[in-house]
Amino acid sequence: MRNRYYYGLLAVWVCMLFAGTICKANDNTLHIHGFISQGYMKSDTNNYLTDSEEGSFQFNEMGLNFLKQATDKLNLGMQFFARDLGPTDNDAIMVDWAYADYRFRDYLGFRAGRIKNPIGLYHETRDVDMQRTCILLPEAAYTDNFRDAIMATNGVSVYGDFLSENTGNLSYKLIIGTNNIKNDGGTVFAAVGSYWDVTDTEIGTTGAGSLWWTDPTNQVKLGGTYGIISEMDLEAVTNQFAYSGLGLPAGLHSAFKVENILSWIVSAEITTTSFLFAAEYRRLETEFKGIIKLPSSQPDYIEQDDTRGEGYYALVSHRFSDIFEAGYYYSVIYPNMDDKDGDNQKENEKFRAWRKDQALSFRFDMNSNWTFKLEGHYIDGCAAMYNRLNPDGFHRYWYLFVSKLSYSF
Questions:
Q1: How far apart are CA 18 and CA 229, in angstroms?
Q2: Alpha-carbon distances of 95 from 79, 81, 125, 240, rounded to whole Å
Q3: Among 129, 149, 105, which Cα is nearest to 286's?
Q4: pTM
Q5: Where are the domains of the chain?
Q6: Dist. CA 245–CA 59, nearest whole Å
Q7: Does the pLDDT at position 107 exceed 70?
Q8: What are the pLDDT digits (tens) for 68-80?
Q9: Buried residues in 177-190 as b, exposed as e (16+ CB within 10 A)
Q10: What is the separation, in whole angstroms, between the first and last Cα of the chain?
Q11: 2-408, what's its fold?
Q12: Dihedral of CA 288/293/299/301: which sign?
């Protein structure tokens, strides 16, 4: 189903692209841009997203995008994207976004296709490493675990801007549609834990929206964003690790349903010639139900859990020269804001209830195409981390080193 959608979307986009070359337009040029980056992760303890304790190069991204102005008001765009991040994605090529954009007026435009979700200040540009100082965005607002579920929506969008020289710019965006996720993607990997292999996934209706105000000097930006997934259904079977971890044999059929997934973020950003300040607060609410089909002599095991999580961060960066920039952020995550102290965790793993991350970043712009970054993290806690990558447990206090080399054109 997913492949048919993408192939159909690609066929429609290509037909519109070449049809546009026949029409008279302001600019018949096909603009092609791209980027490629290779990173490295090393932690003293705890595996983060990949086998970072041993040191891992399984951390790269690449994208190629095409943009064309078909008519005065119609623009077409598409980006192919691939990345590798530990056990997920493995450089599989995907359509990251692809849309037809019709701008009727400044205050009203329409998009159709696969559209990036407006989540927080930086989600829509998170793939392009050269757009920011830090390597890893603060996970308080930008989790990598669920990237494939929240990245984009296959649907329609309405958007617009209300401009005023005296009061600034008020912009809005609304999106509705659905999405597809892979059985071995980051969302599935994080949702079902270490003891299941997912065989099928289905996502219901998804939606997203944003409202932003920017002052007349274009230095202050305030606003909020939201995203919602009506339901996510996963079919799975227990794997060979289930017996040692849960006492369950392999091959038991299980069903997981997550409903009414709601996330919202309030944001503030201030920029000057050389400084950037940003802060965001995020809430995430979910309703979870899991059913494990036990042997016929036993009743099914049913687990239900409604959670409210929160995260927040503050960030500052400064450009010292044309070639050097540095930044710092402090990010806090509580997956369950009703258990911030970890009282519901195992006695020796209370620190699984939070993750407090201090990051220091250095960026070196070698020229207009090449960028090199170094980043160090000191972290307290291990909330929202993969159990499967850490079968021997976690350590509360740990360090993470990240480097990345990027090229864009």
A1: 35
A2: 6, 6, 15, 33
A3: 149
A4: 0.88
A5: 2-408
A6: 29
A7: yes
A8: 999 999 999 999 9
A9: bbbbbbeebbbbbb
A10: 33
A11: Porin (2.40.160)
A12: negative
